[in-house]
Amino acid sequence: MQHLTVLGTGVLGSQIIFQSAYMGKDVVAYDINDEILAKLPERWEYLKDAYRRDLADATDEKLDAAVARIRATADLADAMKDADIVIEAVPERLDIKQQTWEAVAAVAPADTIFATNSSTLLPSDIAPFTGRPEKFLALHFANEVWKFNVGEVMGHEGTDPEVFEAVAAFAAEIGMVPVRIHKEQPGYVLNSLLVPFLDAAAQLFVKGIASPEDIDNTWRIATGAPSGPFQIFDVVGMMTPYYLNASSDDPIKREFAEIIKRDYIDKGYLGKGSGRGFYEYK
């Protein structure tokens, strides 16, 4: 599968785009308007710096070649016309993902494989909206995909086993370590472990038990981990925890979402990729 289309150019979507192009794929970056797409060159420069810092083989020539393999468009039909595989990375809301896949199904070639990068939603809840449930599954990436390079592959009961293996092979081709998930599980392996950890940190913060800095320091010092939970929130970006918590039945989670929106999102502090989240980054 040489031709990839990525739906959504946010924090993780842009990383999937750049990583796939870096590994030699031809990538179409789709988003809903040209104003969003106009910001991508700045994002590519940010990712180039990250690759130079973290990867020994990241030469200027290789990075420039990656950017040259990326084409941006706000025309969905144009984005789909040559796609062998589509990866969706739109906001983490079931209704948005369902509506997105309905629109994609109307214009995508019949043999195109569909994959969602959803962090928490089940493929079976989205599959009926794709028009081709047998060719639909999840391919989930961790943030900073060039460095934390797991690719969790999770189908649903109707996913064709050959499609499942083809997507696992594609994940390996773009530099991921494929992790085959044998049954549907909200959060896969990674987020099944990570989300309760982040939720515990958010509760400590909302209840006024300790500051984000002290919570992070405690975790790093006591366990030897390189990052604390609020540093991880900054890498993930503020929009994902906001969407995950804003409609929760838990009042503590809703309050955390309100804090994130009021004190961070509304001020443009969207996480590490924007230069500021719980911490400031140069």
Automatic annotation (TrEMBL):
E.C. designation(s): 1.1.1.157
Keywords: Fatty acid metabolism, Lipid metabolism, NAD, Oxidoreductase
Record-annotated site: Important for catalytic activity: H140
Cross-referenced SUPFAM superfamilies: 6-phosphogluconate dehydrogenase C-terminal domain-like (SSF48179), NAD(P)-binding Rossmann-fold domains (SSF51735)
InterPro entries: 3-OHacyl-CoA_DH, 3-OHacyl-CoA_DH_NAD-bd, 3HC_DH_C, 6-PGluconate_DH-like_C_sf, 6PGD_dom2, Mito_3-hydroxyacyl-CoA_DH, NAD(P)-bd_dom_sf
Domain of life (superkingdom): Bacteria
Pathway listed: Lipid metabolism; fatty acid beta-oxidation; Lipid metabolism; butanoate metabolism
Broad class of enzyme this protein falls into: oxidoreductase
Any one GO biological process: fatty acid beta-oxidation
Signal peptide positions (record): none
GO molecular function per UniProt: (3S)-3-hydroxyacyl-CoA dehydrogenase (NAD+) activity; 3-hydroxybutyryl-CoA dehydrogenase activity; NAD+ binding
Pfam families: 3HCDH, 3HCDH_N
Ranges where the 3-hydroxyacyl-CoA dehydrogenase NAD binding domain occurs: 4-183
Coiled-coil regions, chain positions: none
Occurrences of domain 3-hydroxyacyl-CoA dehydrogenase C-terminal (ranges): 187-281
Catalytic activity: a (3S)-3-hydroxyacyl-CoA + NAD(+) = a 3-oxoacyl-CoA + NADH + H(+)
Record-linked PANTHER family: HYDROXYACYL-COENZYME A DEHYDROGENASE, MITOCHONDRIAL, PTHR43561
This protein's name: 3-hydroxybutyryl-CoA dehydrogenase
Species, as recorded: Leucobacter aridicollis
